[in-house]
Each structure stands twice: as structure tokens, then as C-alpha cells.
Amino acid sequence: MKSNTVHISSLQRGEPLRLEAVSKHFGEVQALAEVSFVAEPGEVIAVCGPSGAGKSTLGRLISGLDVPDEGAIHLGSTLLSEQPAQKRRVAHMFESLALYPTLDVFANVASPLKAPSHRGLFSTAEISSRVEGMLKMMDIAHLAGRRPSELSGGQRQRVALCRTLVQSPSLFILDEPIGHLDAKLRHRLRGEITRRQRALDQATLWLTPDTLEGMAVADRVIMLIDGKVQQIGSSRQVYAAPANTSIARLLGDPAMNLVEVWLKQELDGLKVLCNGTRMQVSDAFLARLARLKASGQLRLTIGFPPLHTRLDDGAAPNRLQGEIYTVEPFGKYTLVTVEVNGVHVKAKMPAGFQGTVGSSVQIGVPVEHVLLFDHDSGALIQDAAAPMHNKNLSEPTTIHDEA
Ligand code: ADP
Ligand code: MG
Asked: Is 38 helix (H, G, I), strand (E, B) or coil?
């Protein structure tokens, strides 16, 4: 018993995971391009990116199911990428789940604790209590005696989660761990799982295409798009200052509005055009745009969140005219989509908003929340008037409700 305790605590000493310029090709496809980051012990890192971004490939390279073409993966002072998979002690929950069909739920969850990597670590009684604790946390204790074929997709996903989290590894990789669960369970479990993982001394990589989910669970978020790390930061840092429009498109529910504008010098002053439609702008916003025009920036993409976008009769100092395209009542708010020359702009309006599809409406552009992006490269323009310069990111500001 005593020797067990010593053994376990030595295993539970966490070490940082360090990737250095890791690349992987599949034929013509570059699945990962020079991926570098560090995950500290006890840290939960969300790797967010759309389907095909390279998330699962990243997980497979770290746990040793695949080999990088180039680059190195270290865990503390160990060069992980030169160790065989079974030596790496990575608890990896696969997107495909892969349960043992002939074993019941209890035996599936207990299986890694009986594998060579955990041999001698836990007594039979300890294995039982760990497994029972996990099943209870996931609300599936009553299913302990069932086979995988007798479970729903969401139940199977929770069994796979139990089987991963029950282990005592050097690192956790969770590949879309709660994607098949209903919203209520997803919200409860993402909190429970992160709370537990943060209390451990091992890093957790949480791979998900759902940026909101990733932001909710993570100490830091890695934005992975087309196999490249595009940004690493806390949820607040990424939300306040997405590095480019590809990231901005993945933030918020619904995502940030992105509208392309032209700055055009006319005889009576600088004009802002959106697909040929004139945008009304305040003096202050015009001054901000004029400074960019002076530095050669004629085409820009402006980004602003639906949460702060208002529709009105034309009183807003910064506004665009459009036509109501859809009205979706969500009960606590109404989501209105407005078309401006083929571009859709969304506004989260109060529940009682009345609007008719096809009618003309003014979109109030909340310039205090506007981010500006270079039209061609998509990169964020860090001008002095950008919202993130007005905020101290270490201090709490407005609480966004899935903004
Ligand atoms: P994600 O998990 O983010 O959806 P993946 O890592 O599964 O992305 O895939 C990244 C890219 O690599 C995709 O274009 C995918 O088609 C390709 N890919 C992944 N695994 C293989 C493989 N074994 N053979 C060929 N192409 C693959
Ligand atoms: Mg995947």
C-alpha cells in the first residue's frame, strides 16, 4: 500500500509538454506546419480549429500513433517523439471512441488500469473505486453492466471519457470529448472535467471544432487553422484581439460580423463604402480611418460583434443601410440577419424586436467594439483606437453572453 502511494505520487509529477516546429504531410496535404507550443503541468489547453485543421493529427503525433515528418516533441527532458507509443503514458480519448465491444462498461473503463502502463499501481479495490467514481461523475453508474452496443452515442462517449480520465498518465489528450452530448450535459461536463483536470498536475489538450467550448474550458487557447498555429492566448486575449479574420470568423455565437469597406477620397471628404453602399460615419471613426488611409490602407475589413450591433431608424452615428433577411426569435433575444449588398450582418436584438423580412433598416455599427483587419492579408490592424487598447485585459470588463 505504502509503496503504491510513493509510486503514484512520483507518476503524478507533471512535466511541461513542448512541441518544436512539428510538421506532418499526408501526400500533398500539409496536415501540420511547424507547430510549436508549450503546455504547462496542470494546464488545460484547448486546440480549436475547423474540421480538417489538423487537431486529430496533432493528438496522434503526441501520443505516438503517428510520426512527425519534422520537429520534436518533448515531455520535460524526455524526447517523446523518439519513444514508442506504449512508453509515452498518454491518456488519449479518440474521436472514434473505440470501446471494446465484448466488455461491459465497467470493464471498458477499468481496462487501462489493468494494462502494463498501470501494472501494480492500483489494487483491485482501488481500481473499483476509481472506476465507480468516474462513472458517477458522468452519470452512467447505472450502465456499468451494459455492453457498448446497448448504449446511445452520448453514453458511449461518456464511457470513453471515463476510460481516459480514470488513468494516471503523464498527459491527457481529449479529441472532441463532449461533441456527441446534448447541450445540458455538455455544459455541465465541460465545467466538471476542467475543474478536475486543473486540480491534477498533468497537462490536458482538449481538441474541439467548437471555439466557444474551447474558450470555456481552457487556460489558454491555440487557434489551429490549415495546420498552422495562428494564435495562442487566453480566451479573453483571443476574443478581444483575434489575430486575423479566419480566427474572427470562429469567435462568438453567432460569429463576429465582418464587412469589407473601401476608403474613398471625394471632393467633399473621405467616404466609407461597403460594396458601393455609403456608410455613415462619425467624425471620431472617420479620423481613425483617415489615419489608416494616410498609411496606405484603402481597403479594410471591419469586424463587430452581433451582441453590440443595433438596428434602428437611423439615429446611430455610425450606420449602414440594409434589408432584413431573417428574423429568428430565440426567446430571450431575437437574432436578426440584415443583408447589405449580399453581405450578411447579424444583430442580437431584444426579445420583443418587431421587423419584417424585406423591410429596410439601419444597422448601428458599434465603433467602440470595431476591430479593423487588413483586407488582403486578413491580419488584425493594431491601431491606437482599437478596443483592446482601451481595455486592461487583466481586469474583468463586460460579461459577454455568448457574444
Ligand atoms: P481535424 O481533426 O482538425 O478535423 P485531421 O487532423 O483529422 O483534422 O486532418 C487534417 C488533414 O489531414 C485533413 O486534410 C485530413 O484529410 C488529412 N489527413 C488526416 N489523416 C490522414 C491520413 N491518415 N491520410 C491522409 N490524409 C489524412
Ligand atoms: Mg479530428
From this structure: strand
In this predicted model, what pLDDT tens digit does every residue of 252-273 receive, in sequence order?
889 999 999 999 888 888 899 9
Contacts 24+ apart (CB under 8 A), 269-273: none
Cis omega (within 30 of 0) for bond into 387: no
Q: What is the pTM of this model?
A: 0.88
Q: From atom 7 of ligand 1, which residue's Cα is the shortest distance away?
A: 56
- Which residue in the block uniquely carries the three cell numbers 502511494? 5
Pocket flag, ligand 1, residue 51 (CB < 6 Å): yes
* pLDDT, greater one: 38 or 295: 38
292: left (phi over 0), alpha (psi -120 to 50) or beta: alpha
Contact (Cβ atoms closer than 8 angstroms) between residue 23 and residue 198 = no
Q: What is the CA radius of gyration of the chain?
A: 25
For ligand 1, atom 6, the nearest C-alpha belongs to: 54
Ligand closest in space to the Cα of 47? 1
Cβ of residue 49 lying under 6 Å from some atom of ligand 1? yes
Cα(226) to centroid of ligand 2, in Å?
Answer: 13
Q: Choose the residue to mutate in 22, 28, 47, 57 for probing ligand 1, maximizing ligand atoms within 8 Å of C-beta.
A: 57
**Rounded Cα–Cα distance for residues 80 and 394 (Å):** 35
- Interatomic CA distance for residues 1 and 98, integer angstroms: 33
What's residue 150's pLDDT? 95
- Asked whether residue 354 carries a pLDDT value surpassing 50, the answer given is yes
Is 29 a pocket residue for ligand 1 (Cβ < 6 Å)?
Answer: yes
